[in-house]
Amino acid sequence: MSAKLWTEEQFNCPVCLDLPNDPVTIPCGHSYCMACINDYWSKNDPKGVFSCPQCRQSFSPKPSLSRNTMLAEAVEQLRKGAQMADVRASMRSGAGVASSKTKRKLSSSAVLCDMCKGEQRAAVKSCLVCMSSFCEAHLKPHKTKKSLSKHELIAPTSNLAEKICTEHKYLQEFFCRQCKMFVCWLCTSNQHKGHECVSTKVERLEKQKLMSEMQTENTQRLKEREQELKDMKKMMEVTKRSSDMVHDDTEQVLSELQRSVERLQELLEEVLDQASTQKMGHAQEVTDSLEAEVTELRKRDQEMKDLLRCEDHIYYLETCESLCNPLASGDLPAVVVNPEASFEPVRDAILDLRDKVEDICNQELGKITKQVNDTTLFTLGDATRPGLKGGIFKLFSGLGSRTTNSRSPAPTVGARADRRGLGIGLRNQDVRSRDTPRDKGNTSSPRPRDRQRREERET
């Protein structure tokens, strides 16, 4: 029944022309928003005159104001009724809220219009009286209607209700550096009086300087890691092909030797497989770590770019703290990839073994084992590592070395040969050293491929 007798306009505050927030009734009987009447009286405070804006009745001293509970409940019921009416009208017209797909088209920091039905458009202004955000089309009533022209419009602000001071009902446009919190202009003169309070825009500019530095560091680190990841993948591909080729040639060459060399073949395959598995496994772990770090850096870079485009100062300040933290150094130090990674020297050494006798097999096997173990695919530096041009790119530090020291005792061939009597058998055959010419009675000759390799090594 009351809904038929009373309209929403009859409950409006005469000052802001909207439903009152924290309604109070002054001695003459007229009701206002507590903030509106306090603002009105504060302008006339020096004169010592406190009058009603409607009937002009004066009061002295200044009346004390208390919240009109009954009127507040009636206003709240009116608000709920208006909201339900809007919902029913929206359902009858078939208009729905914007789909998640449409929202994803807008930036994650964009403020959407609260009045759009269906596809929501980006807001251009937010109203502190209506507590809503409006697009260009829905903002027109605020420009054309006299009752709305006095409303205070600000830049688009998301979650506007959460950014209103709960005590003074003003927008929190300041940041208290001492208390690390957002405050309104009245808070700066009361609870936060004497504190270092600056506007959110000024605070953002300070934080933005820090973020710009962090973004530069992040971008540089991203470039370095991307290049390292590219080099690692290229090295792994080349090294894998080289390892496969060495494995194939090892089987082909060692299959031509006598039974005593079969033991050598087994040992070499074991060393190569173990070294390849260990080194490639380690390389894969480093590659996985690099990929994870590059993904995190890209994500951080995109979040910084999106946040820098955000026009909402409060949202910016709330979000930038996590992005402005110093970058974690991580467990993985800098990676320097050996661009010339290859097992080719190992394959050459294996081809030389075919021309050697059993007396030097143990010595050659020790040398080859050391060469395999000394194969360096990459090196892990530290934060103070030199630049790429000044780094060490030697991939196989052990290859070509004439020293006999190795990381572990090399396996021997003689033990197996003695057990099976192969040592004596080899000595009775056509066994020659590198400098001994082939027997004239032997008409066999090296294969063209082997001869070509020898010529390349000699040159």
TrEMBL record:
Keyword Zinc-finger: yes
Comp. bias (Basic and acidic residues): 429-459
One Pfam family, short name: zf-C3HC4_4
GO molecular function annotations of the record: zinc ion binding
Sequence intervals crossing the membrane: none
Alphabetical keyword list: Coiled coil, Metal-binding, Zinc, Zinc-finger
Name this protein carries in UniProt: Tripartite motif containing 25, like
Organism: Champsocephalus gunnari (Mackerel icefish)
Region annotation Disordered: where it falls in the sequence: 400-459
Keyword set includes Transferase: no
Domain B box-type: 160-200
Coiled coil spans: 222-274
InterPro entries the record matches: E3_ubiq-ligase_TRIM/RNF, TRIM8/14/16/25/29/45/65_CC, Znf_B-box, Znf_RING, Znf_RING/FYVE/PHD, Znf_RING_CS
Amino acid composition bias (Polar residues), ranges on this chain: 400-409
Domain of life: Eukaryota
Domain RING-type: 13-56
